[in-house]
Design a protein that fits this description.
The protein is mostly beta strands and 629 residues long. It has four domains: 122 residues, Rossmann fold (3-Layer(aba) Sandwich); 104 residues, Immunoglobulin-like (Sandwich); 101 residues; 250 residues, no CATH class. Strands 7-4-3-8-9 form a five-stranded parallel sheet. Strands 21-20-23-18-26 form a five-stranded antiparallel sheet, with no helix packed on it. The chain has a five-stranded antiparallel sheet with strand order 30-29-32-27-35, with no helix packed on it. Strand 29 and strand 30 form a beta hairpin. It is globular. The model has no long low-confidence stretch (mean pLDDT 95).
Length: 629
């Protein structure tokens, strides 16, 4: 386990981690570590409590004479395996070099000018800093906007290509000169290309196409990862995108997945075991400039403690395919697999191949901080109605199977007391099925299409009739299968309390101001030819809200300009399928041009959406939950 804090839902992100793991910073940190190693034992001054993060990210250990602090209340506490000493003892530490863990050398030189040991040389982290032009907030190096970074699974081969799509949403917050710093790594972790992508226009579409990149730079085939650093931004420090995977030539594969979670975690879930005739591959991608030791990452059947190690070591930034049948040969769908990644990777993708078609989806972070909450079972129904809901589309049951597999998404979770409620497109309640109080290691999948009376949506929610505890982080994997063509797609997401005035521990989310300021802003790609873009837009309510939504659909051109505007009203507890080429017409999409997209906006309620692509004539489709900004 890498053993450092990256992100915590309560305290936020560890920006020192982001600052030190940027590929450019990691190169400089390795060079600085070489200099410190040559200097002999080093005394460390740790003014910001980052010594454990720094030491974990060094490519090789250095000799440390002691760790010092200026905080009198911390003296004697353990850091990096040593007891903290007072900074006033630096002069007597006997080290020839002092390493101050701060990115401003002048400040540290002034502060420690009378404390350095005789002949001692001062080193800081200033040598690791990114250039000024790469910073969004120059005066505050560890500002969260300076490290809006993410990674994407990126591939271009004779069989499959990828396309990353998003827009310049930072302009909404005042950004005027947005650009992306991009670095592409191949499967072995070697740098294939580094370049920049200017995005000067407000709302301008961002398209990074693997085939175009490969052609422009004369690159060989690759299966690796793309590092993205958004610069000159404002307001939003998360790099969000949709990632499309398409088959080339006769390959009929098609997938659209959500962005990766930019913070590595120790555990991930939502990884299905293979069904008969399937090959399930976990794409393990090292997110750091450090090697991953063999066996430091493992896989296990969910709820069991027998671990199968991933034995090969991973080089820095290496991508490796791990076949579930090879490492866990006894498991099969609907059993679930837990990936213990030890903080080495961001949210991984998995790829399922069946009948020469692949589908790709992502794992989800399994939270270590969350504990069961007995208060959820006692939520006042007058305030919160049915409470936490996970809405999901139920397409025409005569054509598509909808399979739901509840997934534990916290390390402490031992039970899943759940049921599924169905609704038609107009919001009328339909059949309901109680799944039971499922144990953590369950392998129970529900065929929602077997009892749904028609197209609409379902909602997974807690039901305590047989006991059990809940944590408010209810997740599920939802698999869709075309009965005619055999094509399949899947997605996973978690629950929220939807559209209530009363709040409970931060729910419902998406507030603009104080409640009931619920709102929606979702991003949907648009296409004037197959595979067409679509979304299923759901208006879920935990209790009761407005009778209809007041939803606007804005068609944007690739340069961000609004081309057309339409309004729709979705009944409470109802849903709608949105097809941009039908709503706006093909001529409008042609005017919008390459990169056209739709912003779905509603200031009256929170909607929940799933986006996808469909080639109707070929029977191939994809679906995943949408993102907003």
């Amino acid at each position: 386990m890498l053993g450092i804090r990256t992100f915590d839902p309560r305290s936020g992100g560890n920006m020192a981690y982001k600052a030190l793991t940027h590929p450019l910073a990691a190169e400089r940190l390795a060079s600085l570590a070489d200099d410190l190693r040559d200097a002999g034992p080093v005394a460390i001054y740790d003014p910001h409590d980052m010594v454990e993060t720094v030491m974990a990210l060094l490519p090789a250990p250095i000799a440390v004479a002691g760790v010092h602090t200026h905080d009198s209340l911390k003296v004697g506490q353990a850091r990096a395996g040593m007891a903290l000493r007072p900074v006033v003892d630096l002069a007597q530490c006997g080290a020839r070099a002092v390493w101050a863990l701060d990115f401003n050398h002048a400040t540290m030189a002034s502060r420690l000018s009378g404390l350095l040991p005789a002949g001692g040389v001062l080193h800081t982290l200033e040598a690791v800093r990114l250039p000024r032009h790469m910073l969004s907030v120059e005066h505050d190096y560890l500002h969260r906007l300076n490290f809006a970074t993410n990674l994407a699974f990126f591939r271009d081969t004779a069989a499959l290509s990828t396309r990353l799509v998003t827009a310049n949403y930072w302009a909404r917050y005042g950004a005027r000169a947005v650009r992306l710093w991009l670095r592409l790594f191949d499967h072995g972790g070697q740098v294939l290309k580094t370049w920049e992508y200017d995005v000067p226009g407000a709302g301008q579409a961002i398209i990074i196409d693997s085939a175009e990149i490969r052609s422009r730079f004369g690159l060989p085939e690759f299966t690796g990862q793309l590092f993205i650093h958004a610069q000159g931004i404002a307001g939003h420090d998360v790099v969000k995108y949709a990632l499309e995977t398409r088959g080339e030539g006769t390959n009929a594969s098609l997938s659209v997945t959500h962005d990766a979670n930019a913070w590595p975690a120790n555990r991930y879930a939502n990884l299905p075991a293979p069904a008969e005739g399937e090959d399930v591959v976990l794409w393990v991608q090292n997110s750091h400039a450090l090697p991953v030791p063999p066996g430091s990452m493992t896989l296990n059947r969910m709820g069991q403690d027998t671990h199968a190690p991933i034995l090969p070591a991973l080089a820095p930034y290496q991508t490796m395919a791990v076949h579930m049948r090879d490492i866990l040969p006894g498991l099969s769908w609907p059993e679930q697999i837990e990936f213990r990644a030890g903080g080495h990777v961001v949210r991984s993708r998995y790829e399922i191949t069946r009948h020469d078609r692949t589908r790709i989806a992502h794992l989800n972070v399994q939270r270590a901080d969350l504990q069961p909450d007995p208060g959820i079972a006692r939520l006042d129904p007058c305030f919160f109605g049915r409470g936490y809901l996970l809405p999901f589309p139920v397409p025409d049951p005569a054509r598509y199977r909808t399979l739901l597999l509840p997934s534990p998404m916290a390390e402490s979770l031992a039970s899943l007391p759940v049921r599924v409620d169905c609704f038609d497109a107009e919001g009328a309640a339909g059949p309901s099925r109680f799944m039971g109080c499922l144990p953590r290691d369950h392998a129970v999948v529900l065929d929602v299409s077997a009892f749904a009376t028609g197209p609409g949506h379902g909602e997974l929610l807690y039901d305590f009739r047989d006991g059990g505890l809940a944590d408010g982080w209810l997740h599920a994997l939802i698999r869709y299968e075309d009965r005619q063509t055999g094509h399949a797609s899947e997605t996973s997401f978690g629950s929220h309390i939807f559209n209530t005035v009363m709040t409970y521990k931060g729910e419902p989310q998406s507030y603009v101001g104080s409640p009931p300021g619920l709102s929606t802003r979702l991003f949907l790609t648009a296409a004037e030819c197959e595979p067409f873009s679509f979304c299923t837009l759901i208006y879920p309510v935990s209790a009761t809200w407005r009778a209809h939504s007041d939803t606007s659909l804005y068609l944007h051109a690739g340069d961000g300009a609004v081309i057309a505007h339409e309004k729709i009203a979705i009944p409470m507890a109802g849903s709608r399928e949105i097809w941009p080429h039908r709503v706006f017409g093909l001529p409008a999409l042609a005017r919008a041009g390459e990169g056209a997209y739709v912003i779905i906006r509603d200031t009256t309620c929170r909607l929940f959406g799933y986006h996808g692509r469909m080639a109707e004539g070929e029977g191939r489709f994809s679906i995943d939950h949408m993102f907003g900004f």
